[in-house]
Amino acid sequence: MVDFCQIYNMDFSFLYITAKNREEAGKIGKILVAERLVACVNIIDGMESIYWWENKIQEERETVLIAKTSKTRVPAVIEKVKSVHSYQVPCIIELPILSGNPDYLRWIGEETVS
User: Fold this and answer.
1) What is the average pLDDT value for the chain, to the nearest integer?
2) Per residue in 70-85, pLDDT tens?
3) b vs e for 7-35, b when ≥16 Cβ sit within 10 Å of the residue's Cβ?
């Protein structure tokens, strides 16, 4: 398999973002796609989170957003999410996409061109 990332010298990222509920996740996802910061957002509702916050264990239901974008767009995505998110410290984690379907990676690149 030909590695699209190497041929076109583009790096892609998979962003894991959590939101307080489906409504907030949808709002964030639509903003990111409309502003061409990401090519696609998947929303997974009903996640259970257990975490340490304000000196105690918290348990909440949250919604996960998975966004696919070009590496160059990640800083702008982080800033945009922080500006519209309800959390003081939103979870926004970047994971590199090392390889994948070349046609899909090409599409991500085309949709997130600066």
Assistant:
1) 92
2) 999 999 999 999 999 9
3) eeebebbebebbbeeeebbbebbebbbee
3-class secondary-structure state, position 99: coil
Please, where are the H alpha helices in the chain? 4-7, 22-34, 74-84, 102-111
pTM reported for the whole predicted model: 0.89
Q: Which of 42, 24, 23, 113 is nearest to 76 (CA)?
A: 113
Q: What is the pLDDT at residue 10?
A: 75
Fold of 4-111: Alpha-Beta Plaits (3.30.70)
The letter for the amino acid at 25 is A
Kind and range of the H or E run holding 59: strand 56-70
Cα torsion for 49, 78, 75, 97, to the nearest 10°?
40
**Of the given ranges (6-15, 32-41, 68-77), which has the lowest mean pLDDT?**
6-15
How many Å apart are CA 72 and CA 76, to the nearest integer? 8
